[in-house]
Amino acid sequence: PMLPNKNYDRWCAQMRVVFWYQEVIEIVRDWLQELEKKPFHAQRTTHHEVEKKDDKALFIIHQYVDANNFEKIVLANTEKEA
Fold it and tell me: Which of the 8 DSSP states describes residue 30?
């Protein structure tokens, strides 16, 4: 579903399904948490997996916006920024 200039609510509903299917919905709903100053190995591993999901969600958003909307989000580093 491409993001049109109107009917944003419909696009959001369609994207929610895409995020569920791609197993990144939890990163879309929750914010990427900062890593502690001296994290344990397990914390680093978990954080890395969450970062990968955030990158995947950002990639998905890039695929489902038109050129005009892409220009607005091209500098975003996280899916939340986009």
Answer: S
Tell me how crowded residue 82 is: count the other CB atoms within 10 A of its CB: 18
State pLDDT tens for residues 7-65: 888 888 888 888 888 888 877 776 656 666 666 777 777 777 888 888 888 888 898 88
CA-CA distance, 78 to 29, in Å (whole number)?
13
Query: Can you give the pLDDT at residue 24?
Result: 82
Tokens of 81: 């920024």
Cα atoms found within 13 Å of the Cα of residue 52, Cβ hemisphere only: 8
Tokens 């220009």 appear where?
71
**Of 21, 15, 36, nearest to 79 (Cα)?**
15
Amino acid code (one letter) for 35 = L
Tallying the residues shown for the chain, one arrives at 82
